[in-house]
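Summary for the steering committee. The consortium agreed at its last meeting that each partner would contribute one worked example illustrating the joint modelling workflow. Our contribution is presented below. We chose a case with several input lines so that the handling of multiple components could be demonstrated. No manual editing was applied between input and output; the record is shown as generated.
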Amino acid sequence: MKKKRQRAGFYFVLPWLIGLCVFTALPMVAAVYISMTDWDIVGNADFVGLKNYITLFSTAEFVRSLWVTVRYAVIAVPLIIATSMTIAVLVSKNYRGAGVFRVIYYMPAIVSGVAVAIVFKWILDPSYGLLNGILSFFHIQGPDWLYDPNWVLPSYLIMAVWGAGGGLLTYLAALKDIPEELYGAAMIDGAGTFQKVWYITVPLMTPIIFYNLVLGIIGAFRKFTDAYVLGGAGKEGNFYMVYLYEEAFAHYRMGYATALAWVLFAIILLLTFVVNWTKKYWVYSE
Amino acid sequence: MKKRRNFEINFSIVRRVMWYVISIAGSCIMLLPFLWMVSTSFKMENEIFTVPISWLPQQITFQNYTRALEVVPIFTCMLNTVIIAVPKILGEVFVSALVAFGFARFEFKGRNAMFMIMLATMMLPYEVTMIPTFMAWSALGFADSYVPLTLPAFCGSASYIFFLKMYFETVPRDYEEAAWIDGASNLRVFRMVFLPLAKPALITICLWSFMGTWNDLLGQLIYIDSQSKYTVQLALASFSSMTGETLWGPLMAASFMALIPVIVLLLYAQKYFMEGVKMGGIKG
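What follows is the complete predicted structure of the assembly.
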């Protein structure tokens, strides 16, 4: 009887198992094959072996979109982590009104998508935008932002920092777990606020920083919506996923685009392993 | 001794004031884009393009809203998003709960291996399976329909299953023992014991699932072609190409309308958004 009951569990997980086969395993196998063909939807799919992968690395467009994405990731990910951690430390205080501030900073996690990207495009407008308008109050001539290839990356970074509060919750949860006695002990030893943050908070937060680092890298490499809406001069806003999307659904180069997807997967996997390997050097464990 | 006490009290007041100053300044930066959006949306066209910028509209006009609604039927598009979201949420949340129950409370063959595989699929980028899945749906005649955006939800979602499994495991065994001894069926135990207990977690997941659908651009961009089926995101993304030039006033009006439901939801259900992470530690 008990055994029979235990077996029933299989039927509960069956929907997921079907999904795994139909929507994950099967498409993955197909993706391996498609990436080795020259399929463009209308014509026949001819097997071309590794040609797509070879073409890819010698295509200037690919190299540029990867470079745009890597540069963004290298700067944005640490910037976002530092910002959301600072915000978390700030709003973790139990002063009156802290709850309201928490919701305000957390907002970008919920309020996002195309609308917010459009609003930022308008804010960054060189002539009539809010940002250059504010800068002109201080007699600073603002740059052309998205219209100047050199200022495209900073434009995206401004948006990234604005949205950093969206990752607030994991840090808040981790902050709550830090034992209060540690701060008490530090205070007796005469530690100041910054010393307490640097020697107690930061080390004890490293596991959650690690978690957000991995997710942040993945998120940066998969950046799509903002980049699709904002673009940027000199193709500097042509992030990897935008390039992939255009190859697949504007130029219908399905084989090539699938090869691009596999390369993206490989990059993400590799970076995750590398970050995971560094874990033992800086992540605190009990 | 007394003097030192006074100093400490003053110091804590200074700290508190500083905290408020910093928090309020940061909040202003957070809210400024939205205020600027709203302000622009009520301005006359000649006031939108002024140097120096004008903070508030001199004369409030609704012409940007009427113009925006002429370009895209934003309310119909919102309804379209809801039409996708409702079955998607139902499938994703209910099926994920069923699967999570299976993983949390039964010891069938291969359970642990399956669970590990499920965790691994969470790392797998959607991009790899995106193109083959798209081609399969097209071949089956489901391109330009909502089916590819909703049907897969009925297989559950790995991150929600993971989240709910953690939640179900915190339910003490005694709760269901009695029911099982009484001969209740598994489904009945699931329905009478686990679903009611997991209500806050289920609501959190419903909200994540809804936000995921409301803010998703890539999936909808790939599958939906005809304008009559456009969702909010597609309507906004295609706005400028429909007008031929960038009309900032109407565009801000459209963006504002698209954000209102989300902002209302955040304010109304903030408790569930903010508590969610404590239960499972992950975000879908």
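Chain B has two domains: 2-61, 66-280. Chain B touches chain A through 92 residues (CB under 8 Å).
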